[in-house]
């Protein structure tokens, strides 16, 4: 594999997913930090050279740039046991990863960002008006995960896959967004299974 | 492959993606229609039997159910030329598919749904207040696609992949959301390349 550089903001769960995937696979990556609070991913140099979409994370592979956290995890894990060999299971893993970006991240991660990083008093009126809907949708996402984890130890059967890593990243810090993880005991047990995996690294490691 | 049943609302771009993938691959699928305007995907039977997340599309494969449009496309195309054989290109295809669900669909598709299906006068105040932000984000997504398509005939090089299908579905009907596709000529030429592909089927076919 070419040299890998992760362009990131370390506290972002989307960036952590990629580091956790690399850690579980024993793949070394260099890290380059951008302060999103200071707009460092909206500079001309970043937009032209790293990601025209102005967002981190971006995984740099030699001279190629790969945005989108779950795509970067897929690149790292391609050919490993973190992606199921079975055709249905492989698609079902992607199902949970797309669901994470559409139903989980815009609610659970956004409320964490608003409350824990920006601060509720600094939110715009438009942001504040979206809080109740995001709380409801975030809790619905956590409840759906909790129900699923009552039937299976990991999202796709008995072994961890990228679906677990993608969903772990923002779930395990959801309390920063005001979510009560104590309400979801099966989800709590799954969080413990993830953090016990060989090679696991914490978000602040 | 087991018998395939698509649980869908035919006018949805997310459902169309799956039909278009199947059409381009020559895979027959049975279709089962639900009226989302009447809440038919929130019934107990649907939530228990088809998708606990209460959404279409769901691709049924024998006795297994696969929600999330882009995951269902991946299942159908797995092993075909619609998924690149190269490791970076495969991840880059997924990059555009995740980007579609996060940056494109919630703006371009949501405005089409609000304006073309619900009708602007029937929107809630909360929905109405989100229109300017969704217009700006939707146009930013279309502009980013237009720039990319100035460099390459399809999203991943010279051949169509699932990234093209995923992005085509809501882009080609974006005018229903109030977007002016005439402002994006390279994108327009790409739409024509997609509709000229052998096996292509229209959204209302």
Automatic annotation (TrEMBL), chains A, B:
InterPro entries in the cross-refs: Glutathione-S-Trfase_C-like, Glutathione-S-Trfase_C_sf, Glutathione_S-Trfase, Glutathione_S-Trfase_N, Thioredoxin-like_sf
Pfam families: GST_C_2, GST_N
Chain coiled-coil ranges: none
Lineage: superkingdom: Bacteria
Domain (GST N-terminal): residue spans on this chain: 2-84
Gene3D superfamilies tied to this protein: 1.20.1050.10, Glutaredoxin (3.40.30.10)
Residues in GST C-terminal domain copies: 86-205
PANTHER family for this protein: GLUTATHIONE S-TRANSFERASE-RELATED, HYPOTHETICAL GLUTATHIONE S-TRANSFERASE LIKE PROTEIN
Protein name per Swiss-Prot or TrEMBL: Glutathione S-transferase family protein
Species for this entry: Sphingomonas oligophenolica
């Amino acid at each position: 594999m070419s040299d890998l550089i992760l362009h990131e903001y370390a506290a972002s769960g989307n960036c952590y997913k990629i580091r956790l995937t690399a850690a579980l696979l024993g793949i070394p990556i260099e890290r380059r930090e951008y302060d999103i609070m200071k707009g460092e991913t909206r500079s001309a140099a970043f937009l032209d050279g790293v990601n025209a979409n102005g967002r981190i994370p971006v995984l740099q592979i030699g001279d190629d740039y790969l945005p989108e956290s779950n795509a970067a995890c897929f690149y790292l894990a391609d050919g490993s046991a973190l992606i199921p060999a079975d055709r249905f299971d492989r698609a079902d893993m992607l199902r949970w990863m797309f669901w994470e970006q559409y139903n989980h991240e815009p609610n659970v991660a956004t409320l964490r960002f608003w409350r824990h990083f920006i601060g509720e008093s600094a939110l715009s009126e438009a942001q504040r008006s979206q809080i109740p809907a995001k709380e409801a949708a975030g809790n619905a996402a956590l409840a759906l995960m909790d129900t699923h984890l009552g039937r299976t130890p990991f999202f796709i059967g008995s072994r961890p896959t990228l679906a677990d890593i993608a969903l772990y990243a923002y779930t395990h810090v959801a309390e920063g967004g005001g979510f009560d993880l104590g309400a979801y005991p099966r989800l709590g047990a799954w969080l413990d299974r993830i953090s016990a995996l060989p090679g696991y690294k914490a978000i602040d490691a």
